Amino acid sequence: MLSQETIAIIKSTVPVLEQHGKTITTVFYKNMFKAHPELLNIFNHANQSQGRQQNALAGLVYAAAANIDNLGAVLPAVVQVAHKHKSLNITPEQYPIVGYHLLGAIKEVLGDAATPEIIGAWGEAYEVIAGVFIGIEKEMYEKAEQMDGGWKTFKDFVIAEKVIESDVITSFYLKPVDGQKLPSYKPGQYITLRVTIPGEDYTLNRQYSLSQAPTDDLYRISVKREDEVTPNGKMSVNLHREMNVGDTVEVSVPAGVFHLDVESKNPVTLISGGVGITPMMSMFESIAKNTPERPAAFLHSARTRKHQAFDAKLRLLNESMPASTYAVLYSEEGDGFINRDFLAANVIEGSDIYVCGPTPFMQAVIKDLYAMGISEEKIKFEFFGPAEELELVNA
Ligand SMILES: Cc1cc2nc3c(=O)[nH]c(=O)nc-3n(C[C@H](O)[C@H](O)[C@H](O)COP(=O)(O)OP(=O)(O)OC[C@H]3O[C@@H](n4cnc5c(N)ncnc54)[C@H](O)[C@@H]3O)c2cc1C
Ligand code: HEM
């Protein structure tokens, strides 16, 4: 339990730290990686260089600190991050390292303003926040291990099949090398792939949504080749160009809070842009397999027909269900983007809505959904990178 005095210090200093948020976390990461270069094997360097990870971590530390006497308010965000931590095999022993360097960075950036009382209070608060993460993650690791076919950290999988789905998206069918049955997952969840690429100093970890309904013996992921950007995407380009049937990768147990509520009978609207189609494939196929009467709309935006994956499969699934619809817009073929008129015509009334795609896509779609009077609780979304704040005001 923190004293009232400590709580008061934390609350009064949150705005100051927020003001210096990015500077503090940039210093924190620099110092931490210098002292613990082995951590460079788990952090995503591209997210680091774009500042996305820094913003995410700082944002949550300050949100938790501002609610230090009512951590329940940030629990959903903590659980979402704990899923990501679990999929990267973050361990309790790593928390004091993060704490030490975070406090060190606060001292370094604030200088004399960071009095011993302030640093002491933040040390206590960090311990409380870390304790919550560690507790939730411990439970998750235990569950992962106890699941039928489950395992705790990473396990070797072999690429059993590699299928080109479009000009930019290729699927990889992954089977466990030990031939064990696989634990099921909730449609919409992701795995982390860990790969060592020759010539790279560190291992790469990247998340990929499972892109089909759960099966006992394999996981399928579908990866967009990020080679229209500079520098090229490391993992995706390596998977497309170098990895083939018979090669092995390491995989963690499925994780994530963005998933279909399979118990619910509510209608469902799935809205995706580009490679954001992957979790939706798993959801739509699961509905077709298990609850085909459940009304479901699959709405998708792709640049062109050649960019789009899974069109033939989606048509088949759609035909197999009595109350489903499937609509695609090709933005570079004159269809324009998903806009409010399109949503008004295609979103099923009262449905649970799932959105996944590039950040500007999600921002525009969710703004329109709010403007249509749809409430926040009906909408779930997934970032294909560290979670960011969406600018949804002025809807
Ligand atoms: C929950 C979740 C699910 C996901 N599901 C999928 C999925 O189903 N399919 C899929 O294809 N992807 C998915 N992703 C995204 C995926 O994890 C990877 O981020 C993606 O494949 C790119 O990884 P990469 O290694 O190829 O690119 P990276 O090497 O990580 O590069 C990513 C971007 O950063 C830029 N960059 C890299 N270094 C720098 C630098 N020094 N300066 C400036 N910019 C830089 C690159 O140009 C590129 O645009 C998902 C992500 C999450 C979090
Ligand atoms: C209380 C302490 C911590 C907080 C508040 C925190 C917060 C966060 C947040 C908000 C994210 C982004 C989640 C997302 O992708 O949406 C994240 C990701 C991550 N965290 Fe933590 N974290 C903490 C401790 C740790 C520790 C101890 C480690 C291990 C050294 C760690 C390693 C990571 C990694 C590797 C990622 C993924 C980053 C990436 O994409 O590169 N975190 N964390």
Could you describe the 3D structure shown?
This protein has 395 residues and is of the alpha/beta class. It is 42% helix and 18% strand. The strands form two sheets. Strands 4-3-6-1-2-5 form a six-stranded antiparallel sheet, with helices on one face. Strand 10, helix 12 and strand 11 (379-382) form a beta-alpha-beta unit. Helix 6 (94-110) packs antiparallel against helix 7. The longest helix has 31 residues, at 116-146. The two termini are 41 Å apart. The model has no long low-confidence stretch (mean pLDDT 94).
Short characterization:
With 395 residues, this protein is of the alpha/beta class.
Question: What is the strand arrangement across the widest sheet?
Answer: 4-3-6-1-2-5
Q: Would you list the SSEs in sequence order as H and E?
A: HHHHHHHEEEEEHEEHEHEHEHE
Give the overall average pLDDT: 94
What radius of gyration results from the CA coordinates?
22 Å
Largest sheet data? 6 strands, antiparallel
Low-confidence stretches: none
Overall strand count: 11
Rounded to the nearest angstrom, the distance between the terminal CA atoms is: 41 Å
The ligands found in this model are: flavin-adenine dinucleotide, protoporphyrin IX containing FE
- Helical percentage: 40-55%
Principal-axes shape call? globular
**Number of H/I helices:** 12
What amount of the residues lies in strands?
A: 15-25%
Provide the structure class: alpha/beta
